[in-house]
């Protein structure tokens, strides 16, 4: 698997609204023409470029495995703001621009904070507009929250390139199955775990306890959380919780959870 990553000096001073047109192509299983652009408002930080390189390199191997050797990232361009110090390895951009970038590194969005996200307007199967990462996400170790950054990139790439949606649902984390059992919204259902209320505190002491069923909704109480077991036989899904060590694949037609109330 050949992977090349070149850094290009970003020269565009004005961020003008233009028609989005990605230059990404898939040739002989390798994605070429991916553009990652750093917003001009971001202060210069060499570690930021290094971490982007490491993230995409890690993501390439993860994607290669997840797609059964069908795809990997072969060529990625990083657009650096013109306000940063010029270096000999920086090249002059040809067609690459911030406005047409596939991935933006910019300040936090009011709604998402430092959480990575992909802007999606369309239905399932429609490509997204761009992936958004913040400098804090790229510079801070958040393994417990997100998992390795390379895995997060693959999760977001699936949103962007293939138009798939998350296989979890923050607003409806549980549902009643056809078997009349309460199930966590997830894919696949082969992922086992326990349903717990974490850190319930009274009188200065905190406990963890099993979730109670709400007689009105027939679902678990609002504070209930599904906690996957550490030992699993399931390998999917990247669109559910890519931060779990055992998750290395996407859900397929065979393993897709059609009952789950996710988008």
Q: How do the helices and strands line up, and which of them pair or pack?
A:
Elements: E1 4-9, E2 25-27, E3 30-32, E4 34-38, H1 46-66, E5 72-73, E6 75-80, E7 103-105, E8 117-119, E9 130-133, H2 135-139, H3 143-146, H4 149-162, E10 174-176, E11 182-184, E12 193-202, E13 205-210, E14 224-228, H5 238-241
Parallel strand pairs: 1-6, 3-5, 4-6, 4-7, 7-9
Antiparallel strand pairs: 2-3, 8-9, 10-11, 12-13, 12-14
Helix pairs in contact: 1-4
Question: Can you offer a commentary on this structure?
Answer:
By secondary structure, this protein is α/β, with parallel strands linked by helices. It has helices at 46-66, 135-139, 143-146, 149-162, 238-241, and strands at residues 4-9, 25-27, 30-32, 34-38, 72-73, 75-80, 103-105, 117-119, 130-133, 174-176, 182-184, 193-202, 205-210, 224-228. The strands form 4 sheets. Strands 1-6-4-7-9-8 form a 6-stranded mixed β-sheet. A 3-stranded mixed β-sheet has the order 2-3-5. It has a 3-stranded antiparallel β-sheet with strand order 13-12-14, with no helix packed on it. A hairpin with a 2-residue loop joins strand 2 and strand 3 (30-32). The longest helix is centred in the first third of the chain and has 21 residues, at 46-66. The radius of gyration is 21 Å and the shape is globular.
């Amino acid at each position: 698997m050949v992977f090349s990553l070149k850094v290009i000096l970003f020269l565009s001073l004005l961020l003008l609204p233009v028609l989005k047109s990605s230059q990404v192509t898939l040739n002989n299983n390798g994605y070429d023409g991916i553009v990652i652009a750093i917003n001009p408002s971001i202060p210069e930080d060499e570690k930021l470029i290094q971490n982007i390189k490491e993230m995409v390199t890690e993501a390439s191997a993860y994607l290669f495995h997840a797609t059964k050797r069908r795809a990997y990232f072969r060529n990625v361009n990083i657009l650096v703001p013109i306000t940063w110090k010029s270096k000999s390895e920086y090249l002059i951009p040809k067609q690459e621009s911030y406005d047409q970038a596939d991935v933006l590194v910019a300040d936090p969005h009011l709604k998402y904070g430092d959480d990575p996200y992909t802007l999606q307007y369309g239905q399932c199967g429609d490509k997204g507009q761009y992936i958004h990462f913040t400098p804090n996400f790229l510079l801070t170790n958040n393994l417990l929250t997100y998992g390795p950054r390379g895995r997060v990139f693959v999760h977001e790439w699936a949103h962007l390139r293939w138009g798939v949606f998350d296989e979890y649902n923050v607003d409806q984390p549980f549902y009643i199955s056809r078997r009349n059992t309460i199930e966590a919204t997830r894919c696949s259902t082969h992922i086992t775990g326990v349903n717990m209320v974490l850190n319930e505190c009274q009188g200065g002491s905190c406990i963890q306890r099993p979730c109670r069923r709400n007689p009105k909704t027939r679902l678990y109480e609002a504070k209930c959380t599904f906690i996957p077991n550490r030992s699993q036989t399931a390998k999917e899904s990247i669109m559910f919780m890519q931060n779990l060590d055992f998750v290395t694949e996407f859900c397929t037609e065979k393993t897709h959870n059609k009952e789950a109330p996710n988008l």
